[in-house]
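Q: Could you predict the 3D structure of Cellobiose phosphorylase?
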Amino acid sequence: MRYGYFDNASKEYIITDPKLPVKWINYVGGLYFGGFVDHTGGSLICKGDPAINRIVKYIPQLPDSDFKGETLYIRIKENDGYKFFSPFYVPTLDNYDLYECHVGLGYSRIISEFYGIRADITIYVPHKSDRVIRDIKIRNLRNKPVDIDVIPVVEYTHFDALKQFDNNDWVPQTMQSKAVYEENGLITITQFAFMRKNSSVNYFTSNNSVSSFETDRRLFLGNNGYGTWACPISLYNDELSSYEALRGDNICALMHHLGQMDPGGEKRVITQLGQCENVKEEKKIIDYYRNEENVDKAFSDLKSFWDKYLSTLHVETPDEDFNTMVNIHNPRQCYITKNWSRYLSLYQMGLGSRGMGFRDSSQDVLGILGNMPEEGCELIEKLLQVQKIDGSAMHQFNPVTMIADEGDARERQDRPKYYGDDHLWIVLAVSTYLKETGDIDFLDLNIPFYDKNKDGLPLENGTVMEHLQRAIEFTHDNIGQHGLALLGFADWNDTVNLPAGAESVFNANLYGYALLEMMDIARYLNEVELARKYQNYHETMKNAFNDACWDGEWYIRYFDKDGNALGSKNNDKCKIYVNAQSWPVISRFAPADRAKKSLGAVYKYLNTSKGIKLSAPGYNGYNPDIGGITTYPPGAKENGGIFLHANIWAIIAETIVGNGDRAYEYYNQINPVTKNNNIDEFECEPYVYPQNILGDEHPQFGLARNSWLSGTASWAYQAATRYILGILPSLEGLILDPCIPAQWNGFRVTRKFRNAIYIIEVANTAHMSKGIKTLIVDGKKIRGNIIPIYDDGNEHIVRAIM
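A: Sure. Here are the predicted structure tokens for Cellobiose phosphorylase:
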């Protein structure tokens, strides 16, 4: 069943039925201030750290019909009293005549019609601002006048979000709300908590006069708190109590009497939910956003930001689903994932100490470096600051405090304290930044390592190049009995945790790929000896890998401390892993014959109609010697589930060997846009990649979960643009090396690169998958397939024939 459609002209997905299988969300603002809004108007908003500076209460485990965080009621005065409903459908669940939730770039717009009243509400955070705007427009569609009231409501949480759940005595005693009365009936309601480390207050206000308000949930719901959000008893009264809560469950509800509206009449209410140090000092800014023209400008500025962001690359291919994802929704998801890492989503609620992952963000940044290299560089610098002197990296860190830790590894005394892959991802991030920008001087920037002295000061600094070299040397110095890179606590697959001494084929191949990138940099710097050294490292690991890991039809995935193979034909469970077949191709470790054979094994044993399984067959019962993978039933997550992140690497591997048809088949299998007609099975948003889909060993095969904040976003964008379309930045220029389905007649790409715009048209009249026969730039034939760097601010016309 379809629940909505893509509107590419408006760069929106429009939901037409609010009764979705699960909540769908959209992001507003950023980590500095923002969060997400769901398709029925609920929201989770924070400023900075979601664990210790959360603003509204959103508990996703409660039924989808329940109010969460923020909502809106419209009240109509009838002859026999009041009729009220929510234009968001939730929580009143009234029958609607029209419902649309426009999921836009940085905003959600909900349009609905109930009982002859049309509501049009746009929800967003002005760019780099500390407030959520809800721009509410109400129109009377009836053929007679009607009295209308508008009552927006927020429910606050304690700033320290975990306290909401683990201390139901202390939390209610510390939260208070106060009213700040202003001229012309304007009111700002502030909410704060005692015993807080800073003095910030939350506030809720609007641009219209407020006749009354409520700050106590018990009073708002009525009936001694046994009223419901679907039918708050207080809304049957003319006014709210205007009580300023001294404790309890703090909310803020504002009563706006819009008065009698004539047929066709429209009125507008603009609310602000924000946080500041001092409301009196903030009033000038609050007043600015009470002005309708300023709000319109803020929304226009937000749209301009996204237009600029997306203008870096635009594609026109024969596949509209491909175009939809690559031009709009995939780069949008890359930006959101870069902002939030795995910090705050419908699935990771930002509680505890997880923060940002070193591995996660090192990959996320790859997806936005072409669009916003400056912001990407800032994130890379942060990541380098949590790399240790020995070259390894802390697994996760808080981007506000920059305090890092080892993640789950710190909990296990019988396992290594480091993740064997973390530190290598930063090599890819820096290399991609250099190739995108040409900012080679970045390598000379001094950045501290994470290790501190007793005063909390860094023990040592190093240039970016030194950071990268230490990352390489850490893996070089930590190899096992087969000459392969050690696993550490885990590699990319967090759920296989083997005792110290285990070796990881993934880490070995990631190391190989990082070495290729370091060789590129060394050669560009004319560091001949360094390039030769890394070439030798690469050959040594390549030989060790091929000597130890070939299993006859595919590559082995792990060796435990005793030298036993995992991911082998000799195992009962998880005989084959997809990453052990794709990454040897990416690292250039696999000889051509083995690359072809192992990728064929992926298609034969792991591929399904809904994507490639991470491994097969699945474990069926917990095994503490192997780890978290065995906590899932067969077909779920890492245990035989379709992990989309790994699907992308298989796509890239197929393009490297020249198999464009299979790469394209794999891409289509997991493109969320293609799921739009089958949402009852898929369930998640069709405009973003989820993390995983249940595999064919699970009875709910095809069900997706953990959408939005997934490394899949960055890698999918790279696979589509750099490997399928083959527009690949390098230190020497823009490489053109497409690997497309043979049936395509060609494609067109507009790409901004190094202060020039390239209009690239590729003709495929011979219906090949790979190989450029002729390359013409501005009318001149170019030898090879590298488009020169012009850096002149002009457009350049590129014609290529395959």
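Q: Anything worth pointing out?
A: The chain has a mean pLDDT of 95.
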